[in-house]
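Q: What would this chain look like folded?
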Amino acid sequence: MKKPAIIDPTIEVTIYSHAMMTPPHKVEEFNQDIETEVLYAHAMELISEGKPLEGKTYLEEAYDMGSYKAGKTLSYGLSTGWFGERDNKASLIILWNLVERGYPGAMNDIGFAYMYGLGLRKSKRWAIYWFEKSAKGGCSDAMGNLADIYLFSNDKYQNIERGLLYAFMGADLDNEMAMNELGLCYEDGIGMSIDYMNAFKCFSKAVENGAGACAEHNLARCYRRGRGTSVNKKKAKELEALAVEHGLTKETKEK
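A: My prediction, written as structure tokens:
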């Protein structure tokens, strides 16, 4: 199932990045002897076929039986509007339950809710607190979120050294957001020497891993300006169109 893009249109996405919720678990293989695994796989199949409400029923059943994956995906779907109107309150109830059970992915999403005021009072301080807890638990999405905050916040929370640490950590775990941010550091010389070749590699990998509009826009710039690769205006135009399709709504500005 294609992962839906999460881009808030009020956030600048043409150059930098956007905070990420922990996406649903992909169903590649599952144990047919475990009932919750079967229910989860069936739910995701229905959702991918355009039957979200039927899929929701199976997610709820699996979650009630103790499945973290089902609870996480159910919360994700409620917050992003998979099942109709977005329901941040219902999503948060599930997330807090999962946080109490110690799941790093849920901690990341609580941080996301604080970051953008989704059912909680907006607070960057509390967002960072939960992203840090999540990252310590191994959640690569939280690492990407922390890199974004520490590298690109023009306020007291900016911490280039710590941001680079999380960008490298997240990229090592194949996190697409961290790869995109690391590419920006290489491209602009943020905390390191400018290296267009590595910037191009990072943006390319981020796009390949599904980073979405921001990385597509950044990779297009590499092709347009010949940064780390040969100039290819046609490829740049294709990537910009893809970025718009994936949520890029603001006018692109040359740096």
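Residues 103 and 137 are 8 Å apart (CA to CA).
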